Amino acid sequence: MDPTPVSPEPIIRAVDVVKRFGKETVALDGVSISIAPGSIYGLLGPNGAGKTTLIRILTTLLEPDGGEAGVAGVDVLADPVTARTKIGLAGQSAAIDGFLTGRENVEMIGQLYGLPDKEAKVRAADVLKRIDLTEAADRQVKTYSGGMRRRLDLAASLVGRPEVMFLDEPTTGIDPRSRIDIWDIIRDLQSDGTTLLMTTQYLEEVDYLADRIGVIDRGKLIAEGTANELKSRIGGTVIEVVVPDDQRDRATEVLRRVTAEEPMFEPNKRCLVVHAPDGSRTLMQVVRALDEAGLTPDDLEMHKPTLDEVFLTLTGHAAEAAAAADDGSNRRNMAGRSRFGRAGR
Q: Which of 74, 152, 222, 327 has the fewest beta carbons under 10 Å from its own?
């Protein structure tokens, strides 16, 4: 009989992590995650859920009030200096100098990692080629587009050849073409054996990229699994009903009566959302009930669950945009400090 396969030790782990700010704000309330080597883990959550706080703890930039955290076999609390040599971090705001060239930025980060000048130049050329910025490498970064800046930020994070990459909303604010380019880079990194933990406001992004997904809300990890596992939690199909604003209360009552559940309102789409375990049969019942109530929908749609519906069901609200603007300076500091490796302290 073949021996039972042994699961690899997690390369990123957090055990019962707690973080409070002041007496009343609990940013993390006993969060535990375990991430396998070579995987992409997507962390979803609304503003203030605790995503960035968890990343800051895992990247040694913030000490928790309780729990344990480790990266690449290193206890980030007991030995943060060594932990920083194992990780790369790309924050939401690109931590690069606009007056330097792309090449100079990456070489500088390599030097801050403690690399000899010659090695820093070699690695900088390598990562610039890898992210398709060789032709623009000797231009000042202030001439770069938003997408090019994000790619350069990734290059700077990669120059230390980290085992683990933390990506805090890596494609926020860039055009769709550049987003796809970043996705390709993330996939290439995984193919090379890098483990990635990413937060994002784009549910289709984590649906496409992540091997496993964690949903965090109000400081707690409320769900975890593959995209398909999370979608299966709400089962069946989903019906979306759009009615004029002045008819929403009446339509809500109709849907509540037909489906025996409380409809959710999705403000981005202006639609009421209910689950339809019987699929088209439930849809026909909804259509008849709306007609009998004298309500004519502006739009009516039935489809398989998406991560957006999962998020709405689990948290009670739609996925929100990026974190508050006053967090931007912290993210720039996160990116800068985490890259410094041994020089970080």
A: 222
